[in-house]
Amino acid sequence: MGSLQSLESIAVVSQVDGVVESYAHDVGEQTSGGTSLVTINQEDYLLAMERAKASLAQANAELVVKKSRYDRYKHLVAQNNLAREQLENAEADYLVSKADLRLQEVSLGEAELALARTQITAENGLWVSERLINKGDWVHSGQKLYQLEQIEKLKAVVYVTEEHVNSFASGQGVTLTAEAVPGHYFSGHIRTIAIQTDTTRNSYPVEIVIDNPGMILRPGFTVDAEVSLTNLVAEEE
């Protein structure tokens, strides 16, 4: 006997600071792929991107001027009409402007990335187990916003004594029943078998992956497992 858990539990965190402008799903709802799960107010990030664009344009204009002067000085030095020291200074100015342009390009990229991160999306078909924010909340980078669960497949951990553990193998077929849905049988297979005992139970944890057609099963359901000693299946990647 074991208790079901989601196969994958995903914490959704913010990658930027800001005010929650909207959220799309509540507890118990399923996400839609490609749609926004949370939107952080974009005003400051739009302004930052415009500043970065302006700085890039200015740096590009300065580079054009510095390169033109450097090219002109090279021509004058070649004709012995200008001191080489002035050419060297012009070259240094040109190289500094070139480096500054690259820095401004990076800054614009960072501003665009920060703006994109104000729109937080989720994969399709995940289920919301926790919503930790409300509209108008201030959130910071790294703060958890949602907890999502993948329940198209579930997992359960059962505990096997040392007398029986060698009768089990990874990939072995399993049939399960759940107290909450009597009369239904669910297919699964053994994914992992621990190499050490759980000291609190003095037995070996065995993890079973279970198919969940129609999303009938839910995390927390109690299940009984019956293991087939002949039905071995390849574990899914």
Automatic annotation (TrEMBL):
Coiled-coil region(s): 42-93
GO molecular function term, any single one: efflux transmembrane transporter activity
Domain CusB-like beta-barrel: 158-227
GO cellular component: efflux pump complex
Pfam families in the record: Beta-barrel_RND_2
Domain of life assignment: Bacteria
Segments crossing the lipid bilayer: none
Keywords on record: Coiled coil
SUPFAM superfamilies: HlyD-like secretion proteins
NCBIfam families in alphabetical order: RND_mfp
UniProt cross-references to PANTHER family, sorted A to Z: MULTIDRUG RESISTANCE PROTEIN MDTA, SLR1207 PROTEIN
Family of this protein: Belongs to the membrane fusion protein (MFP) (TC 8.A.1) family.
The protein's name in its UniProt record: CusB-like beta-barrel domain-containing protein
